[in-house]
Amino acid sequence: MSNKVEVNLTGVRQSKGVWLVKVPKYLSQQWDKATEKGEVGKITIGKKQGKTEVCFSLSEELAALGSAEEKDASVQVPRDHPFTMQTVGGQTMAVFSQSDTDEISLEGTVVHRAECRPNVSEDYMKIKRLQSESVKPQRLSQQLDRAITTVFKPVANHDFNVEFEKKKKSEGKMVRAERQVVMDMLFSAFEKHQYYSFKDLVDITKQPVVRSPCTHSTTKQNQAPAHHPPCLVKFEQIAHSMTSMPAHTLLWLKF
TFIIF beta subunit N-terminal domain: from which residue to which, for each copy (predicted)? Predict the structure, then answer.
């Protein structure tokens, strides 16, 4: 069962309007350095050509403290930060606060949204550069007492290459068989299936090149006419050697 939390709604009764402002990180860090009753800065609101202009000026005391990322004392935190005003839109937003005793209070509803942007100056660019350098990972060089054995070491030959060479030697070189023997193997193969690729014929016949007695075709005419009998009568001379044809080429019988 969820715990119920009481919320102090004094801000609603007082109809407080608050501004929701996005500020740079270094500026919020400077505000944290201020004392409980200290001044963090001033806001100036004016109009120029009918448009409202808002600017926040950081106090001289906080600007003199320097940014947390600064290593060079000569780098000064920018003081002037003009606001870029934005519309609230159709949203209803509110600001809550939590005390040390975990009491939650409603401070008010958001009536204006803005983004606090600093004037681009040399000091601001230095601060941004220091911030980028502070988040970079530090490289560490460490000397190892023993060699790491979990990585792959260079080898003269890989296992799959050695296995392939053994298989190749065990099968031996392809010796050209007698023509009639090859014919018998082809007849026996084509009695089982109608079409074969070059690779399959090489595996069946164990011959280096088959120049005959099949007809080679690379077109879509890869089916025998329907009126031809299913039995094999004869083979015609092949047009090209097996080794010069692509793997997807089919051999078909012409009757």
Answer: 16-122
Placement of tokens 């806001």 in the chain: 43
Token pair 């190892």: residue: 144
pLDDT at 33: 83
Query: Which run of H or E residues covers position 106?
Result: strand 104-116
Residue type at 206 in one-letter notation: K
Computed over every residue of the chain, the mean pLDDT equals 72
What is the rounded distance in angstroms from the CA atom of residue 250 to the CA atom of residue 217? 7
* Same-domain pairing of 18 and 105: yes
Q: Whole-angstrom Cα distance, residue 130 to residue 218?
A: 68
pLDDT tens per residue across span 143-192: 888 877 776 777 788 888 888 888 777 766 667 778 788 888 888 888 88
Based on the fold, state whether residues 177 and 245 are members of the same structural domain: yes
CA gap 170, 199 in Å, rounded: 19
**Structural domains of the chain, count:** 2
The arithmetic mean of pLDDT across residues 110-114, rounded, is 87
- Taking CA 77 as the corner, what is the angle to CA 118 and CA 133, rounded to the nearest 5 degrees? 90
Phi and psi of 218, rounded to 5°? -110, 0
The residues pairing with 250 across neighbouring beta strands, listed in sequence order, are 197, 217
CA dist 200 to 9, 12, 22, 88, 217, Å? 84, 85, 71, 73, 16
The number of beta carbons lying within 10 Å of the beta carbon of residue 241 is 13
Q: Is residue 40 part of a domain?
A: yes
pLDDT tens digits for 172-182? 666 777 878 88
pLDDT level of residue 203 (50, 70, 90 thresholds)? confident
